[in-house]
Amino acid sequence: MSETGSNKDVSQESLPSEQATAHDGAVTPAGNPFADPGLPPHQPRIQDIDERAAKRSERTVALLFVVSMLATIGFIASYVVFPIDKIVYIFPFGHVSALNFALGLTLGTALFCIGAGAVHWARTLMSDVEIADERHPIGAESEAKATVMADFRQGAAESGFGRRKLLRNTLFGAVALVPLSGVVLLRDLGPLPGDKLRHTLWAKGKLLVNQNTNEPLRPEDIPVGSLTFVKPEGLEEDDHEFNVEIAKAAVMVVRIQPEDIKDKKELDWSHEGIVAYSRICTHVGCPVTLYEQSTHHVLCPCHQSTFDMADGARVIFGPAGHALPQLRIGVNQDGYLEALGDFAEPVGPSFWERG
């Protein structure tokens, strides 16, 4: 009885060989029934065979880069031209902020044109030949590094970056201008301080007003050894900018025996031993509130910076960096204490641009 379907009926010719050849000539490795199709034949682009088409692509890419540059300039111009509260109607968005719409449109156009120009450059002018390479260990050998550098130089040559100066220059222009948008946006960190940190509401002729009674002060209202907090005339607590202004203009007035004042400038800027100093600590801006009559020292309660009111309010202890600024005072024709000008230096903590 014969064994139907057994391996003995299969001829050796029917078994797969170590290497089989597919019908199209591709080689099939042993144990793999699928042939390697390889890469399709390269089809040249119109730009590869027609220099006029390449020039058209070059001009298109350059135009996109130029539009990007113009959009960046438009972004900066929009930031300057449009007021922040201007509302316009734009179909189909409705009523929108003119500034936000202009900034978004111009910045989006600038970035899109750089990207579109780079993509069009790569698709039409750079080499599109596909290259198959074998996998290799992560740690490249010297030969592999040399190959990479050679490929890089070849890619740079094929991209036309060195030969097509119009593309290169317009790309540089677009990429160089786009970061200016971010620089302009730094303006939104807040209004420029200008010289506001150097000036307060004190000016020549401003009366010294008691902050508790809201009444102007006469010399006889301040006994020796007393501490009085004053504000400039015209500053009221219900003013919208009261907290901002009093943070710079708060002043403490102390009366010392003139013979106890050691600093000549302090004596010249006082009136009958009445001295006026900024109440804002020069460490971190806390209000100085504690006064020791016997030593003429004032103390900041935050970090214990101590100032000598009889010696130009110099720092004698603590982390404060410099003396309290003095306000020059006098008496007007009505007998009231008045300022003879603003502080000669900025009040409060030091800041980086302080002169």
TrEMBL record:
Molecular function terms from GO: 2 iron, 2 sulfur cluster binding; metal ion binding; monooxygenase activity; oxidoreductase activity, acting on paired donors, with incorporation or reduction of molecular oxygen
Chain ranges of the Rieske domain: 248-338
A GO term from the CC aspect: plasma membrane
Membrane topology: Multi-pass membrane protein
Localization annotation: Cell membrane
Pfam families registered for this protein in UniProt: QcrA_N, Rieske
TM regions (residue ranges): 61-81, 101-122, 166-186
CDD domains linked to this entry: Rieske
Keywords: 2Fe-2S, Cell membrane, Disulfide bond, Electron transport, Iron, Iron-sulfur, Membrane, Metal-binding, Oxidoreductase, Respiratory chain, Transmembrane, Transmembrane helix, Transport
Residue ranges of the region described as Disordered: 1-45
Amino acid composition bias (Polar residues), ranges on this chain: 1-20
Protein family (similarity comment): Belongs to the Rieske iron-sulfur protein family.
Role according to the record: Iron-sulfur subunit of the cytochrome bc1 complex, an essential component of the respiratory electron transport chain required for ATP synthesis. The bc1 complex catalyzes the oxidation of menaquinol and the reduction of cytochrome c in the respiratory chain. The bc1 complex operates through a Q-cycle mechanism that couples electron transfer to generation of the proton gradient that drives ATP synthesis.
PANTHER family in the cross-refs: CYTOCHROME B-C1 COMPLEX SUBUNIT RIESKE, MITOCHONDRIAL
Entry protein name: Cytochrome bc1 complex Rieske iron-sulfur subunit
Species of origin: Streptomyces xinghaiensis
